[in-house]
Amino acid sequence: MSKQARKKEDRCGWCGDDPFYVAYHDDEWGVPEYDDRALFEKLILDGFQAGLAWITILRKRDNFRKAFHGFKPEKIARYTDKDVERLLGNEGIIRHRGKIEATIGNAKAYLEIMDKEPDGFAGYLWDYVDGKPLVSKSKNWKDMPAATPMSEALSKDLKKRGFKFCGPTIVYAFAQAVGMVNDHQTSCPRHKACQDLAR
To answer: For the whole prediction, is pTM greater than 0.90?
Structure first.
């Protein structure tokens, strides 16, 4: 069996053959992220995914970045009704009023966390896993949970702080994506690679 075929066979089963998914899986998913703004962007995009397939968001991600000023919370927090209407008219993103308005509120909540928490948004989030990725030992991605006590606790606190579209399932998907949880199946080459990238 060729090296390429072996890698395809070992890669997490959820990503399939779609080039967007494969690139996302191989380069991003599960890589520990410690940048405040990047974490904010990912949480917002996971909120927009609610009720949709992640590939839909992935294909529109560049459009989202342009529409939301590079996901700079300082800018988004100052959005007005005019901005909401501008975004609702943008065919390149998911035009959902509730999610757009939640993004503005989430930016304000993010700025409050940045102001109050000594280690910023990243430190606040990573405290929920004691600063180190929770490492899965699952051999099959289908065995992985949709939510955990950690994601339930984080979701509850995010909501308490004013965030929306951040239920336990969304938060767990977010935690997987940003490497707070290493849920690459153990046969996947990225399992150890992501573990080695943790601080």
So the answer is: yes
133 Cβ contact partners less than 8 Å away, ≥ 6 residues apart: 32, 179, 180, 181, 182, 194, 195, 198
For CA atoms 29, 46, 33, 181, the dihedral sign is negative
Alpha helix ranges (H) inside 50-188: 54-67, 73-76, 81-88, 97-116, 120-126, 149-160, 168-177
Q: How long is the chain?
A: 199
Q: What are phi and psi for residue 78, nearest 5 degrees?
A: -100, 5
Rounded (5°) CA angle 104-105-109: 120
pLDDT digits (tens, 9 = 90+) for 105-162: 999 999 999 999 999 999 999 999 999 999 988 888 888 899 999 999 999 999 999 9
Q: What angle do CA 87, 89, 91 make, to 5 degrees?
A: 95
Q: Are 81 and 44 in contact (CB under 8 A)?
A: no
- Asked if 88 and 99 count as a contact pair (C-beta separation under 8 A), the reply is no
